[in-house]
Every structure is written in C-alpha cells, then in structure tokens.
Amino acid sequence: MEKYTWNSHSPEETFEFGERLAKHLTAGDLLTLEGDLGAGKTSFTKGVGKGLGVQRVINSPTFTIIKEYKGDLPLYHMDVYRLEHSEEDLGFDEYFEGEGVTVVEWASMIKEMLPEERLDIYIYHTGNEERTFELCPKGDRFISLCKELF
C-alpha cells in the first residue's frame, strides 16, 4: 500500500493543505480522518470546505454526528466517535454515494460500513503546532489523486 506524507508547521498550513486537496475532489469522494484530540482534523476539514466553496463556518459535528454544508460541491462532515459498537443505521451509504464530498472523523469506529475506495488520512502530533499527515489511498481514484497532489 502506498503512503504519502506531508508536514504542517501551523494550523494555517493544515487549513491550506485541506483547501489544496479539495481542488482535486469530486462528488462521491470519501476522506477518513484519524488522529488524537487536537490533531487538526477539524482545521483540515475547514480547509476542505473552503476549497469546495462552503461559505458557512465549519465546526465539529461531535454531538450531531453529521453536518451538511452547501458549496460548489456539498460537504458532509461526520464525527462518528460516539458510534463505536453502534448497530444503528444512520444512512451513511446515502452520503458516501451522494452528490458531495464526505469527511469522516474517527472513521475507524465505523470501518465495516466504509466503502473500499477512499482516502484514509492519519494526523500525528510532531510538535507544538507541527503535524505529520499520512495519506493512504484506497483504490485507483485516490492513488491517482495523491500522485497529482504530491
């Protein structure tokens, strides 16, 4: 499995990386995010939203699970941390196969529900504001996207 690594030195760079990545996304794309609390998952997602043309303020959907934002492409932002071991059907397939881009924080909690083709992103603390992003593409679409991005 190919992996691509990128380093951020600030929350602003994390935001800009999300915005740059968004320029390569299309309807139906799925990004999964894993990382400790405060790793930058929401900052990254805010950048993705800006890159997709979202005008509203993006914040973590921790208590609502899913937030939808309108842009040039819709953004479906999910935080599924609270769903570990949940059997509840929340209609994730409709989002994963929908007209927008889906970003799932803590995706490992619902790994059995995830489509095989996706871009898994791991964010690691490497300093006070420094982060390392490890992108693991699943499927030809995301392998091509990463090659283009890097």
Write the SSE topology:
Elements: E1 4-8, H1 11-22, E2 30-35, H2 41-51, E3 66-69, E4 75-79, H3 92-96, E5 101-105, E6 118-125, E7 131-138, H4 140-149
Helix pairs in contact: 1-2
Write up this protein.
The protein is an alpha/beta fold. It is built from 4 helices and 7 strands. The protein has helices at residues 11-22, 41-51, 92-96, 140-149; strands spanning 4-8, 30-35, 66-69, 75-79, 101-105, 118-125, 131-138. It has a 7-stranded mixed β-sheet with strand order 1-7-6-2-5-4-3. Helix 1 (11-22) packs across helix 2 (41-51). The longest helix is centred in the first third of the chain and has 12 residues, at 11-22. It starts with a strand and ends with a helix.
Quick structural summary:
The chain has 150 residues and is of the alpha/beta class.
Write out key terms for the chains shown:
single chain; seven-stranded mixed β-sheet; 4 helices; 7 strands; about 25% helix; globular
The largest β sheet comes out as: 7 strands, mixed
* CA-atom Rg in angstroms: 14 Å
Number of strands: 7
Placed side by side, the strands forming the largest sheet appear as 1-7-6-2-5-4-3
The proportion of residues forming helix, as a percent range, comes to 25-40%
Low-confidence stretches: none
Question: How much of the polypeptide forms β-strand, as a percent range?
Answer: 25-35%
What's the pLDDT, averaged over the residues? Answer: 90
| Tally of separate helices | 4
Tertiary shape: globular
